[in-house]
From TrEMBL:
Pfam families listed in its UniProt record: DUF4440
Protein's name in the database: Nuclear transport factor 2 family protein
SUPFAM superfamilies reported in the protein's UniProt record: NTF2-like
Naturally occurring in which organism (per UniProt): Pseudoxanthomonas mexicana
Every DUF4440 domain range: 17-126
Length: 136
């Protein structure tokens, strides 16, 4: 299946990534399951490789802290996105900045995030994510 509109495909793939990040932050395992391909792999900023099941299992209410009254949910911002469309695949490279509550207040952490998505089933699904810390 060839890309019919590379610009539109790139935009839809980026929307899927934004939805995935929102699902991570809100611990929405159902949304994550819909957005991740069955053979999904995740390379963490520390170099750990996890599969789809491990990633979805990690994002539960207890690990996210959303079950604690008054907990501050991290915020995420995507920027500097660049996309490459090849057939039914999109490679999206972006800057992902997370703002989290730390012991000394809120802090920001930025990573270069690379996502590989495909539309083989008619919807954009993420097959691979690799996060590389940006040392600032």
């Amino acid at each position: 299946m060839k890309a019919t509109n590379p610009v539109l495909d790139a935009e839809r793939a980026e929307m899927a990534v934004r939805s995935f990040i929102a699902a991570q932050l809100s611990c929405d395992q159902g949304a994550m399951a819909e957005l991740l391909a069955p053979d999904y792999l995740d390379v963490s900023p520390l170099g750990r490789v996890d599969n789809r099941q491990d990633v979805i299992h990690f994002y539960n209410e207890a690990s996210c802290g959303n079950s604690t009254p008054g907990a501050i949910v991290p915020e995420a911002e995507l920027g500097d996105a660049r996309a490459m469309v090849v057939d039914e695949h999109v490679v999206l490279v972006t800057k992902l900045t997370l703002t989290m509550q730390g012991a000394n207040g809120r802090r920001k952490s930025s990573m270069r995030a690379t996502y590989v998505l495909d539309s083989g089933n008619g919807n954009w699904r993420i097959r691979l994510a690799q996060l590389t810390p940006i040392l600032e």
